[in-house]
Every structure is written in structure tokens, then in C-alpha cells.
Amino acid sequence: SEQERIRNFSIIAHVDHGKSTLADQFIRLCGALSEREMANQVLDSMDIERERGITIKAQSVRLQYRADDGQDYTFHLIDTPGHVDFSYEVSRSLAACEGALLVVDASQGVEAQSVANCYTALEHDLEIIPVLNKIDLPAAEPDRVRREIEEIVGLPAANAILASAKDGRGIREILEQVVQDIPAPRGDPAAPLQALIIDSWFDNYLGTVVLVRVMNGSLRPGQKIRTMAGGKEYLVEKTGVFTPKPVHVSALDTGTVGFVIAGIRSIEGARVGDTLTDASRPAPAPLPGFREVQAQVFTGLYPIDSADYERFREALQKLRLNDAALQFEPETSQALGFGFRCGFLGLLHMEIIQERLEREYQLDLLSTAPTVVYEIETTDGEILHLSNPAELPPTNRIREIREPLIRSNILVPEKYLGPVITLCEERRGRQVNLQFTGGQVMVSYELPLNEVVLDFFDRLKSVSRGYASMDYEFSRFQAGPLVKMDILINGEKLDALSWIVHRDFAERRGRELASRLKDLIPRQMFEVAIQAAIGAKIIARETVKAMRKDVLAKCYGGDITRKRKLLEKQKEGKKRMKQVGRVEIPQEAFLAILQTE
Ligand code: GDP
Ligand code: MG
């Protein structure tokens, strides 16, 4: 039957190891697009994504492949996001496959993120085919990387395919192996419909497009469907597949991957991981694994020009159409005025959204330091979840503050292990596992997320000369001696700089922060006092001296080019300045919390 000649697979690869280039080669070899259409990498649709080389939105393509056995096979190549923040989406994409290619750059080696995704694939019983890519590079070390795959991932790699997505070597061999090794989808065409939602996005013309993998039964226009977790009913208008161009088909049968259009008004109506079933003949149970994604990292975003506020709200609403994980609610700061508190899956997700707001919507935004969600138990026994330190109840109403801990796995060459351990210990980490394999070490720590949103990734890269990689997931809340630290500027509390810190670190971090603020806040016509305080107790104090009049005079008396330069510089700086009381404070000051040391 046709079902026996279907192969569903994903590519697991660390960023830059060649996933998109390889997918392009498959599309080319299967003749799905003309050369001109191939001019751009087709799987990455968004600009930012292309620039960063990260696939944000999962997309899937159907390919027709004539194998060496003379038979025609239908492949569904399911693209997965490549970053640690999107691990839930990755798990749903993998749940839609019977196999995966583990692609490792043969000149680099195995990275933590691919290990994590491989484990997810193994949990779903996927057949994994190891591929060593970039074999054309002189620096390629296939033997070493093979050993790493065996020792770190625990996968036999003696027969790993040597490939180059650049010169085309090994491509056909990979597709033959897909045919040989990856099982056809099982599923029962006669059973009630069960289709897993892999992704959903908003299209201006089509409305919500839902990408699904049909596990049992089939989907066709005219059918009434129901989302099993969401409990909503819709009428299927169209079914189709991406080749990668969208093409309508009369039905999506058991084992296939394709899209459904069903008059769903927003992606809320079809959440990733939910199950579609037939409303008149529902399946007895949903597919396993549905979970609502929760924002982990929060920041306050404020338009520099308060006239942009409404435009900012509209931009957030638009982005939210395609991003169920993006949260926002209005927030007012005494210091910064009207803005939004926004929630993200992680730091990279946050960076991507901020960049899109600035680039695609031309908004100048000021952001406060990212924080995590704290669980607070009040003296009345009430449980609060807060992401904004400024909203913390008064100390005498707090029984306990609990902070989120993550479980992280760090993969690092042995010679950088020492500095990595030191870093984790400094950040209040607790070692839970240490495993030596070949030249690399997999070290696992439980770490407060609060310490990770500071500058952990940057520090990890710098202490390991770029060699360490890491993945993480939320682990649990834990009570700790946490206190709120406030920053006062000329005696006035700057709410946007309030911060929750561990008591043992409070004094040192308070002193460091005050001294960094002193360097960041430009001299004004008067003296500026910077204080760090816990409750009523001042723990640090710095002063920005007043500007001397003659310095100003000298500047403006100078030659014309110098004067212009100065004015231009001032204008640029102005863009990111916020007037707080009488004091002008630059954007960098609001992020000063982020740098430690
Ligand atoms: P992705 O982030 O995994 O999707 O990686 P890309 O496909 O975007 O590739 C990252 C970079 O590696 C790009 O500059 C590619 O041109 C390059 N690249 C991909 N495959 C190969 C290969 O086999 N050999 C060489 N030399 N470069 C490659
Ligand atoms: Mg890519």
C-alpha cells in the first residue's frame, strides 16, 4: 500500500552544522523546485532567521523519491527549531516522525543541544541515522566525531554516512538509508481520526494554518473536527501539503504530514501538541504529550517615545498571532512610564522578539533586565507568581520566596572543565552528574534560572573559549534566602532597577551595580547620588560628580567637525535615554544588572 512507502523524518543538528543546506540538497535531488526557486534556502522563511541561521517556525516538506529499488517513496521532512528555548516544539516535531538524521559537523563535533534532541528522539523510539557533514573541509575529523557520537550519544556510528551538503557527497546515500532503515508509519486508516498538531501559524489570507501528522484515520475537506485538549470544533475547508510550495490535496491519509485550513481564528484555537479528531466519531483518547508552553523569562519593554505606545501594542498583538508562547500585559513604571511586561520561553526567544519589534516595526524600545518567575508564599498562606520584583509584597507579608531551578547539561572539552565548574559553583549550582567520554565531559548542574538569565551563556562561552554547549529545562521551585534590592537615584527609588538577589550576594552585587551605574550615567549639571538598598538599609553608595561649566564651554568652542561629531553622538545617545526625575539615564543602565563579575 501507499502507507508502506511513506518515510517521516527530521534532521537533528546543532545550529550551523548544515541542516538547512542539507534539506536544500534533498529538495534539489527530489526535483521539487527549479534552480531559480532554489536560489534562496527554502526552509528558512523569515529574514531574521536566515541571518541568525536558526529555524524558528517548524515547516515540513513532502518529497517524492525514486529509490534504487525502483519504487517511488513519499518523504515528509519535518523541520525542527534548533535552539534550546524551543525544546517543546522539537519534541512535538519528533513525535510526528519514525526516524531522524543526526547531522554533526565533522570539523566540530557533537554539541549539547543535539545530544538533548537525540535523547528526545530515542524516547519516541525513532530510528536514528548518523551523518557526518562538511566532510569536504580539511579540518574534518570523522574518526574523532564518530567516537563522540558513540560515547556521548550512545549510538553506533561506525557506519555513519560521510556527507557534504556543500558539494553533494553522500546525499543519495542518506536518502537510500532513510528508505532502508526508517520504518513506514504504522497507524490504522480505518480507526477514528487522530492527528497531532506539529505547528500552527497565522496567514493573512488563509487564517490559521495547522500543520499536522495524521496518526490514525484521515482528514478531508467537509469533515467536522474537534481539538481534544482545546475542546473546539471546526469545519475543514482545505487540506494540503508543502512541496515546499503549498499544494491542495483531496485528503491527508494515515501516516502523512500536511496542513489543514478550518476557519480557525487564532493559533490559540489549535495549540501545538493538541490532537485533532473527528467530531462525529471521536477517538477514545488524545495522543500523549500535550502541554501548554509557559513563559520562563520576563522583561519590561517601554517605548522611548511614549507616543509609540499604541503602535507598540499593535506590534505585540501581531507577533502574538504566530507565537503562542509570547505573553504581554500592560505595565506602568514610575521611572519609565507606560510599557508592557513581556514573557518569553527563554533568552534567545526574547532577543528574537525584541529585534523584530525594532526592525520590522521601527520601534525604539527600552528594556529592563530580564527576570524569572518567583513563587511567593505570603503570611496569609496565599501563593503568588511574580515576575516583576517591583510588585513584591512588603517583607513582613512574605513567608517564603521560591525561585525556579533548571537542570542543565553542559558538554565541554576536558581541558575547560575546571573553569566551567567554577562558573557553575559561583552561580549557586549543584552538581548532579559528571560523565567523561573521549575528550569531552558531560556535566549536569541544577542551577537557579535567575543566575542563568544574567550572563551565564556568555560567561560559559568565554570560560570555555567557545567550546562548551548547553541545554536546559525547568526543574522545580526552591525556597531560598532571597531579598529585594532597590536602587535609588538622588533618593528616589528607580522601580525598573529593583532586583531579587540571594542574600549572600546582595552586598557585593549592590556595590558592583552602583559602581557600574556610576560609569554609565553621564555627568549632569548637578551631582547624582546612586544608592543600593535592601529595605531601609543602604548597602552601597556612589556619586556622579556635577559637570564643570568650563568643560562644556571648551567643547563647544572647538573646531566645527569635532562639534558636529559631539552633537551627533549626543543625538544618538538621546535615542536611548530616559528622563527619570531630573536625571537622564541611558538604556545601558537598565541592563547593568546583567553583567556580573
Ligand atoms: P543550519 O544552521 O544547521 O541550518 O546550517 P546551515 O545549513 O545554514 O549551514 C551553516 C553554514 O555551513 C552555511 O554557511 C553553509 O553554507 C555551511 N555548510 C553547510 N554544509 C556544509 C558542508 O557540507 N561543507 C561546507 N564546507 N560548508 C557547509
Ligand atoms: Mg537552518
TrEMBL record:
Protein topology in the membrane: Peripheral membrane protein
The record's Gene Ontology cellular component field reads: plasma membrane
- Listed binding positions for GTP are D16, H17, G18, K19, S20, T21, N133, K134, I135, D136
Could you list this entry's UniProt keywords, alphabetically sorted: Cell membrane, Elongation factor, GTP-binding, Hydrolase, Membrane, Nucleotide-binding, Protein biosynthesis
- Start and end residues of each Tr-type G domain: 4-186
The record's listing under InterPro entries reads: EF-4, EFG_III/V, EFG_V-like, EFTu-like_2, G_TR_CS, LepA_C_sf, LepA_CTD, LepA_IV
Q: Which GO terms describe its molecular function?
A: GTP binding; GTPase activity; guanosine tetraphosphate binding; ribosome binding; translation elongation factor activity
Q: Where in the cell is it found?
A: Cell membrane
GO biological process assignments: positive regulation of translation
Q: What class of enzyme is it?
A: hydrolase
Which reaction is recorded as catalysed by this protein? GTP + H2O = GDP + phosphate + H(+)
Does the record carry Phosphoprotein as a key word?
A: no
Q: Which domain of life is it from?
A: Bacteria
CDD domains noted in UniProt: EF4_II, EF4_III, LepA, lepA_C
Q: What is its EC number?
A: 3.6.5.n1
* Record-linked NCBIfam families: lepA, small_GTP
Role of this protein: Required for accurate and efficient protein synthesis under certain stress conditions. May act as a fidelity factor of the translation reaction, by catalyzing a one-codon backward translocation of tRNAs on improperly translocated ribosomes. Back-translocation proceeds from a post-translocation (POST) complex to a pre-translocation (PRE) complex, thus giving elongation factor G a second chance to translocate the tRNAs correctly. Binds to ribosomes in a GTP-dependent manner.
Protein family membership: Belongs to the TRAFAC class translation factor GTPase superfamily. Classic translation factor GTPase family. LepA subfamily.
What PANTHER family has UniProt attached to this entry?
A: TRANSLATION FACTOR GUF1 HOMOLOG, CHLOROPLASTIC (PTHR43512:SF4), TRANSLATION FACTOR GUF1-RELATED (PTHR43512)
| The protein's name | Elongation factor 4
